[in-house]
Amino acid sequence: MTLLDERLWSLFKRHLQQTLTYWSVFFSFGLCIAFLGPTILDLRCQTQSTLQQITWVFFSQQFFLLVGSSLGGLLKKTLLSSLSALLSSTLIISLVFAIIPLCHHVVLLSVAMALAGQAMGVTDTIANLQLVKLYQKDSAIFLQALHFFIGLGALVSPLVADPFLAEDSCVLGANWTANSSSSSDLQHLRSSLAGQGAALHNISQYPLHTEGVVITRVSYAFWIMALISVTPVPAAVLALMYHERLLPCSSNSPRLLDRDSLSSTGDSGQGHGSLFGCCNAAKLRGRPSTFFILHTLGGAILFITDGIIGSYAGFVYTYAVSPPLLMGHKTAGCLDSIFWVSITVGRLAFIYLSYRYTPPRLLTFSLVGVILVQCLLLIFYTSCVFLFIGTCVLGLCISSVFPSMLAFTEDILDYKGCATTVLVTSASTGEMMLQLLVGSVIHSQGSYAFLLCSTIASFIGFCLFLLFLYVQHIHRNCHADLSKNSDTEKPNTGGS
What we know:
Largest sheet: 2 strands, antiparallel
Helix content: over 70%
Number of domains: 2
Strand order of the largest sheet: 1-2
Shape: globular
Strand content: under 5%
Order of helices and strands: HHHHHHHHEHHEHHHHHHHHHHH
CATH class of the largest domain: Mainly Alpha
């Protein structure tokens, strides 16, 4: 074992409990974020709402996830506030899952999902920030593992829901035998609703009952999810708080918070602040312009790449069942699962690659790979086989962009800014906004525009990354000049 291996292993063992806690939180996060899509039709029956009404629950969750991502930055002043927020958020998510079966009106359901989305956004920011703060220059490897657990949770979530989903119409009207949709139609609709926000267009063609006898067992799925979330994850966060001596019952021992606050964050003004904390005049004084440009470019890159992930997952099924491919519903329904499996496998592979290669190399490889795959998908747009191959390779290439970009940006900025909050919030915004944009373009221009939009976005993302590298070079030279000037001034101040 090399010296670097021993150092990383020693670092991991020293922060073992913290790391495992944040990984478990992200596994729960993955469970939550992937659970709404498969259950949305049964929730429509439970609330006896139309498809147009129920799909806005997606938007409610996504919008407040964005709000929570920004809010999470406000709670990072100390370890106590961050872990308290993490504990509260995991408990809120579990509580929301428990009460969703009791929400029999679409407005109540939207409010519940908004609360869950905000709590999920807070956990997203806090877990990323705490891992970056723990491992700093070695954070790339552990961030890859963190985001692997999101994908793992997203893969497990549909398996929990599937046994409790209705195979036929779950609202039986008086004339349901004549008008109810067939099982194949419902399967087609369920697949098209799998991507968050994807079904806000072209869903009026599916007339489903809103009045009648509700027959659904989806409540059991949510209660099982509540049990999975409520027991181990908040308990792990609570155990971490006890380990860090942040609970009243452990106040007789010296708190580790004091040591962490001094060594990790300095004063509260220099630690990881909120999204709006970057605009504090006291913090901004003396910062070079490249400091702000790097934040902006990093956020823009993740806005685009996470937007590509969201829009591809949301619309690849719609593209596959439309001309010229005209795939069968069951076959096309596999594409979304293949995409998420490849993302999860890619993040697992990049744990090792992050140890072997630097983030700039990994990002260059990933972004170039995304462009090549998108171009090939455009060229072979009539090939069903290549759509499956391209979906798999695209997931592998784009899987590491977020954790690598986060580690790279924080490293450039010396872990003193609010880069994590800015990047997490930008990624959440892109995932929500690009889905709506691509959905609008598909609605007006046809399904081929789906691939065209993704390809254009890929090129823009790579160009922004090249600009990011150029600004990073200028920033490094500027930082070196400031350090040199500071060193030359020191003898003068201490001379006489």
